[in-house]
Write a structure and sequence with these properties.
Layout: H1 3-15, E1 20-25, H2 28-42, E2 45-46, E3 50-53, H3 55-62, E4 65-71, E5 84-87, E6 90-95, H4 99-108, E7 112-114, E8 117-119, H5 123-126, H6 129-132, E9 135-138, E10 142-143, H7 145-148, E11 153-159, H8 163-173, E12 182-190
Parallel strand pairs: 3-9
Antiparallel strand pairs: 1-4, 2-3, 4-12, 5-6, 5-9, 6-8, 7-8, 10-11, 11-12
Helix pairs in contact: 2-8
Length: about 200
Amino acid sequence: MEHEDIIEMVTKRLKDIKGVGKIMVFNDEDREKISALETKADSMTLMGLGIGDNKGVKEVMKCDIAMSFQTTMEYVWPPCPNIILTYEGKVVGEDMDDTEKLKELDQSGDALVIGNIALYDKSILMSKKSKSKPLVVVLPHKPCSEVEELSHVSRAILASPSPPTDEYVKERMGLDNEHGTGTFLLGFDIETDVD
């Protein structure tokens, strides 16, 4: 099967997902620009918590095919964690879907809960080391089973872009920056040993 046919098959599958709008395949120039935007974004403070590390976008850019798709409020995000907080290489917090667990952590007195993000030990923010070694806000890639189950496709992953990449992608796709819309990046590899 030709790469173009596989991309078309993936595009059709994405269009079947509720909340998915326009779709665009990245060219080499897009990949370079996105990598540069994400490198710059990684050096900025994210959510006032620490520096960024968008591992998800980095992984998507390594895939054979990288593309983006528009999302609306109807799109169902992958399950948490979509944000992982690390300090000196250890996981110290994350976003959560479990409101009871968030409530329990908030009431413990040890944790800091901001919306649906929990930092398990808020004393990390007060330590002298945290000034020289900030928290790292990791945005991991997530599996995309709807695409990975297709023939000739392997390792299909999703990533949430940084705001500068989101703006760039929306501009390239000819999208307005409307409230309630966003973009996700999708990367996948092509299986070459399948008939």
